[in-house]
Amino acid sequence: MSNLSLDRSRQASFIEAPSGTKWIPFRNIFDMPKAHAWETFAKWGERWGGIMSIKLFGQTWVIINDPNIAVDILDKRGNTYADRPELPMSELSGWGRALSNSRYGPRFREYRKLIGRVIGTRGSMKKFYPAEEYQAAMFLKRVLSNPSRVDEATRKTAGAMILYITYGYKIQEDGQDPFVYMADKTMEEFSDCTTAGKYLVDLLPLLKYVPPWIPGAGFQRLAAKYRRSCENMAEVPLKFVEEQMAKGTASPSYTADLLKDPHISEERMQDIKWSALSFYGAGADTTVSVVQSYFLAMCLFPEVQKKVQCEVDSVVGRARLPNYDDREALPYVEAVCKELFRWLPIVPLAVPHRAMADDVYDGYLIPKGSWVVANVWKFLHDPDVYHNPFEFNPDRFMGALAERDPKDFVFGFGRRVCPGSHLADDSVWINIARTAAALEVNLALDESGRPVIPVPATTDGIIVRPLPFKCDIRPRHERILDLVKEATEFEDSN
């Protein structure tokens, strides 16, 4: 069954595009990339063009390597491509009910409506600014107390912010917070099981009926484990809010506001529970990945760090930390954030869309049911769009000839665009602005005193982060510790 062949009868209905769009002649399932598929797809695109097709076990995949084609198909024809394909591994793991994986229909629209009420516009985010500024200061405190654990500090900070907005939950500062740990673990599993094509069951859906005790059905046992984590992440924080509301001690939050209705149906309760779970991916993973990328970039491109620090000092000074009121006056900080989104995109290969009807693009038929995959990594590393794309250069977004804003691509397309994009963007900005103001990031030294040059590489999966690296982190000046202390007054945890 591993041999792949082109369906000749179906091929006849594909009209070759003037640009030479063709089917890729797959010989074997093992031709499919095992990791970092976005890089392989980009190489294929150099030969086969901006839009190409492969067929795996009868399933058509349409891979888009050209950003303009992605906009034409996924944005401008959003009604046709609003659906998600069935991803059996994700379904078996419990994630079929989450917003990102929901099929297009009433449940999907209800989730987006609920989330949009809270974080759907830039204006709606302003009520969260004080909490986000506080958590950005707490991030500095966490890093300064343990500079070797930036990864831990970013996860804790991002988790604290999202858990507070979603459930009114205040994390414990000492040790490992149980909710943050649960959320981190669950999102890692989500990234694994939602990577389209990673598991054979996604290519042969009938395998989802194979009993877990059958040899070779290890994916079933793994999915059962993932499902328990997913259901706990959806259920446990909801129970926390209900208990706090019963005591009259609940903080304002997305979930608490929706639970105020005394006549909630079971269906409505499920909508609240699963839409709340979607918040974590909307902001936490973005913040973790992008902030970690900042530390990596500052090690490799110290001239950028000097320039962004100079801007912050000239606008804000050294007597306080930046806040959201400073945003318009800090264009280079904004450019740094855009370049972080572009340089190491957190979702390099977008979650597939599904064609809900036959569609013809530039003479090329995309059959109903096709999986349409946007290679976001390729869009953001296209030398025709971004000059020297592998260089970290925020200046590309400055001035009248600024290059294209990467946020046109990183938050998705059409009706599947991330409803938490404003939350993610705001969270990244305040953390980068305050980190630039407070911390000096340099290359770590080895035992011989020689600099250790990190490699700008990422993990694999639907959501990626920089691979572990070492750096040297210190406060920029003598007032930093006092400023951080003033901004992080003691707050009780739950």
UniProtKB/TrEMBL annotation:
PROSITE patterns: CYTOCHROME_P450
Keyword 4Fe-4S belongs to the record: no
Pathway of action: Secondary metabolite biosynthesis
TM regions (residue ranges): none
Cofactor(s) the protein requires to work: heme
The keyword Transcription is annotated on this UniProt entry: no
Phylogenetic placement of the source organism: Eukaryota, Fungi, Dikarya, Basidiomycota, Agaricomycotina
Pfam families according to UniProt: p450
Similarity-based family: Belongs to the cytochrome P450 family.
Protein name stated in the entry: Cytochrome P450
Source superkingdom: Eukaryota
Binding site residues for heme: 418
Gene Ontology molecular-function annotations: heme binding; iron ion binding; monooxygenase activity; oxidoreductase activity, acting on paired donors, with incorporation or reduction of molecular oxygen
Source species of the chain: Gloeophyllum trabeum (strain ATCC 11539 / FP-39264 / Madison 617) (Brown rot fungus)
UniProt keyword list: Heme, Iron, Metal-binding, Monooxygenase, Oxidoreductase
